[in-house]
Amino acid sequence: MSRGLRKFSVETIAVLASVVIFWVPLYFVLLTAMKSAPEASEMNLAWPSKIQLWQNIKNVVAFRDHMLLRAFWNSSALTILSLAAMVVVCSMAAFVMQRRNDKATPWISFFVLAGLIIPPAIVPTIWVLNEIHLFKTLIGLVLVEVALGFPFSVMLYRGFMAAIPREIDEAAVVDGYGGYRLFFTIIFPLLQPVTATIIVTQAVFIFNDFTNPLYFFPGAKNATVQLTLYNFTSQFVSQWNLLFTDILLITLPPLLLFVFFNKKIVAGMTTGSVKG
Fold first, then answer.
1. How far is CA 86 from CA 16, 143, 146, 193, in A?
2. Which Gene3D superfamilies is this protein grouped with (predicted)?
3. Is 77 exposed, middle or buried (0-12, 13-18, 19+ CB in 10 A)?
4. Looking only at Cα atoms, what is the longest distance across the chain?
5. Stated pTM of the model
6. Helix or strand run (H / E) with residue 104
7. Are 142 and 85 in contact (CB under 8 A)?
8. Is there a contact between 71 and 231 (Cβ–Cβ < 8 Å)?
9. What is the helix (H) or strand (E) element at residue 153, kind and residue range?
10. Mean of the pLDDT values across residues 157-165?
11. In this predicted structure, which of 103-107, 186-190, 220-224 has the lowest mean pLDDT?
12. In a 3-state reduction of DSSP, which class is residue 173?
């Protein structure tokens, strides 16, 4: 088999695999969201006899006193606050870790890397948040999201910062720049590619987070978009058409974000890896 034909075969298999893994489930979600309740309960790929997508959307939005709208507000606030804190804290931590070179540096790097391996402990985290009076609060959940995204973001920032010459720091210090002024005036603007990558990837993760809001931010008024899925399924009755309509509505924002900023994600991660 020639090299060109082999490459074509691999690409064809990859495209077919992506269609099966991604587009077929998405098509099933959209198709079920267009059906009536009896047709949706059959759970098949048959085309609906009558398209009821708009009616299903109105029913989902109005359900439980417009709970979905409150959930979108909660998820948006959680995502924006978490990203703002994550970008500032992680970039500053990565700058210090990349620039300092002493005996503690390997240990600090080890503990940051361990954050990617060690699973979060739910009960101790709830106890800590309760002791500092942040349990069931948005700020407490923001701290949890920042802590979970900290290792990944620091590693990306640190790899990218390795390409920034230390001579820039030395020249700024000679000109009278302090630590904070040096970082936010000179270093931070240079981090735009990797910052865009972190914002997009972490925004999708935080917006779609199900477990952390369930444990650390309970309550009907505090529900995020993923928790609204409970509204349409139970032990005895499941409204499949409304459930899949809800899935469709809460999937669209992160999907569009990922599609439009896909090139920035790849550019930020590859640039950081090559320069690091």
1. 37, 9, 5, 15
2. MetI-like
3. middle
4. 75
5. 0.86
6. helix 104-114
7. yes
8. no
9. helix 138-161
10. 88
11. 103-107
12. helix
In whole numbers, what is the pLDDT of the chain averaged over residues? 87
What does the pLDDT average to over 146-156? 93
225-228's contacts with Cβ under 8 Å and 24+ in sequence apart are 225/68, 225/71, 225/72, 225/74, 225/75, 225/250, 226/75, 226/250, 227/71, 228/67, 228/68, 228/71
From the list 185, 190, 165, the residue with the least C-alpha distance to 175 is 185
Percentage above 70 pLDDT, the chain:
91
Average pLDDT score over residue span 232-256: 86
Determine the average pLDDT of the residues in 192-220: 91
Report whether pLDDT(9) > 90: no
Under a CB-based contact definition with an 8 Å cutoff, are residues 56 and 30 in contact? no
Tell me which of 256 and 142 has the higher pLDDT: 142
Per-residue pLDDT, 275: 44
DSSP assignment letter at 183: I
- Count the Cβ atoms, other than its own, within 10 Å of residue 134: 17
Long-range Cβ contacts of 124-129 (<8 Å, 24+ apart) = 125/215, 125/216, 126/215, 126/216, 129/216
Enumerate the β-bridge partners of residue 238.
Answer: 233
At 74 the pLDDT is 96
